[in-house]
Amino acid sequence: MQNHPMKPDHGAKRRKKAKTERNNKSSGFDEVLQTDIDQLLRRNQPETEVAAESPAETPKPILPELFTEIEVTVAELSSTGDGLALSENADHVYVVPFTVPGDRVLVKVVRHFPSLSYSVTDFIKAVTPGPKRNDALIGCQYFGKCSGCQLQMMSYEDQLAHKKRIVEKAYANFSGLIPELIPAIGDTFPSPLRYGYRTKLTPHFTAPPGKSRRQKGPREPHKEVPPIGFTYKNRRLDLDIEDCPLGTDIVRKGLRSERKRVAENIGRYTKGATLLMRESTARIPKDAPDTNTESSAGEKEAGRDSGDVIRIEHDQYSEEKRCVTDPNATSVEYVDDYMFTNKAGAFFQNNNSILPGFTEYIRQQALPPHNQEDAKPLKYLLDAYSGSGLFTITLSTLFKSSLGVDVAGDSITSARENARANALPNTGFAAADASTLFKDVPYPPDQTLLVIDPPRKGCSEDFLRQLLTFGPRRVVYVSCNVHTQARDVAVMVQGDSEKKIRYEIESIRGFDFFPQTGHVEGVAILNRASISA
Q1: Which helix (H) or strand (E) holds 47?
Q2: Are 425 and 517 in a shared domain?
Q3: Which one of the listed residues 146, 323, 459, 480 is annotated catalytic?
Q4: Are 259 and 265 in contact (CB under 8 A)?
């Protein structure tokens, strides 16, 4: 009996290559884009033509010269956030940023990839806007040049629908599972804030012109202020960004202050640099004595923050927000009433506005229905890739005991401090080597929930083998890359025939942590099942 059927693999060579390189790929951007391009071409090529012609017999499309301007009509929006437009003969695709389906646009052709059947273009203007384009919604003066945002001209409802489609396509194209094994994708969970949500920005500037790294001797300092900001779309050049409306108010203040500081000291820089602006929050109870509370906002010391302060009044407390600029200084963040301290340069989710709803959703999904009526109810939480303890801490009250595990020692140190600060004695953290992550877990698998939140490249094959060997009863897989998530979930669904264990997908849903961009987070819930003989 076949318990985990897979789709016929018509792209076996491409996916096989992807599998061997999986641990080295951070996002799979090119592969995702190529998949969308290939599918668009197949849908618009007559079946008789596909059957009759071999690749050698297919005539090469005639492409415009580089840097010429042409008009194209956008057919669809790719999972990367770029528009895709077909050539006149539907045998080549133009990748067009900052567009929506139906846009008739003027573009400049900047790169050809004839063997891959597409060309990259720069957006110039919308000649005839499509029905879903509304340029009045654009909230940034740099949109259309900066590589940070892709979707500002779309309504938020359309953005959420597009991101649901991204998740659907990720599982359809990258899991290899037959549709019957994939549940209907849930509606994308919205962000309460669509602008002003980013608690961290990292603009940069390049080294001064002069000697290369291979040449001996120091570079001369900058003689004038270089562009400080983010990269241009489709170029290896920096765009000078004076303000980013995605940042929170204090982060935007910090950006202005840091730009001023760099400009005043530009003669000292012989190298490029990446700047840090990280929001840090102190909560001061209204009935607290009038004492100095600055240290609780994240080490107010010279050179460690921008010097900017924003004070917000609430019923029970005041919030004092600062912008930390030293990666090794401490930043403080609240999720509901839980307090988290971290090194400002360490990873922590960058959209605080969505975190209460996000963690509440995970809490609601953590335990199966009627858990307490079960002979062996879930009592234990194992949080792999725990970082500074976001899930271990916010889920801890549901469990008898919780353990966060991570390979990064600094993250474990922060997590332990956070558990103490939130008075959670049933919560522990341990640093573990990636190759033995599950070796010393003290919990019975039958009563354990596993939460995993890996980096963009997803889980390693070794980690997935360990997971199947341990065999937790329930798994919550959180991912910032739904394409690698789909790939990993498929491994769990296929299971381990020797151990007669596999997993079934209960639900999949996207979360919009980054409005105005093409990024979407995914949450998949899985339950352990048996492989019948």
Answers
A1: helix 47-52
A2: yes
A3: 480
A4: no
pLDDT digits (tens, 9 = 90+) for 483-531: 999 999 999 999 998 889 999 999 999 999 999 999 999 999 999 998 7
* Total domains, the chain: 3
pLDDT on residue 286 = 84
d(C-alpha 176, C-alpha 309), whole Å: 51
User: What was the pLDDT predicted at 373?
Assistant: 79
Q: Do 489 and 445 share a structural domain?
A: yes
Domain holding 77, by residue range, is 63-133
Q: 402 and 509: one domain?
A: yes
The span from the CA of 244 to the CA of 142, in Å, is: 9
| Token couple for 401 | 């005991």
| Residue at which a domain ends, from 84, 109, 133 | 133
Residue 349 assigned as binding residue:
yes
Among 294, 324, 343, the domain-final residue is 343
Is 488 annotated as ligand-binding? Answer: no
For residue 406, say whether it is annotated as part of any ligand binding site. yes
- Is 140 an active-site residue? no
Q: Is residue 227 part of a domain?
A: yes
Looking at the structure, tell me whether residues 328 and 240 fall in a common domain: yes
Does 462 lie in the same domain as 358?
yes
Q: Greatest CA separation found in the chain?
A: 83
257, two tokens: 């202050």
Q: How far is CA 31 from the centre of its chain?
A: 16
> Angle between the 461-470 and 482-494 helix axes, to the nearest 10 degrees?
40
Domain presence at residue 3: no
pTM, two decimals, is 0.90
Residue 6: inside a domain, yes or no? no
As a whole number of angstroms, the distance between CA 416 and CA 405 comes to: 11
Do residues 409 and 497 share a domain? yes
Torsion over CA: 346, 347, 348, 349 (sign): positive
Residue 277 sits in the same domain as residue 333:
yes
| Residue 9, pLDDT above cutoff 70 | no
Could you read off the pLDDT of 270-327 as tens digits, one per residue?
Answer: 889 999 999 999 999 988 776 554 444 444 555 577 789 999 999 889 999 999 999 9
Return the structure tokens found at 372.
């307490």
Q: Which helix (H) or strand (E) holds 19?
A: helix 12-20
| 377 and 494 within one domain | yes
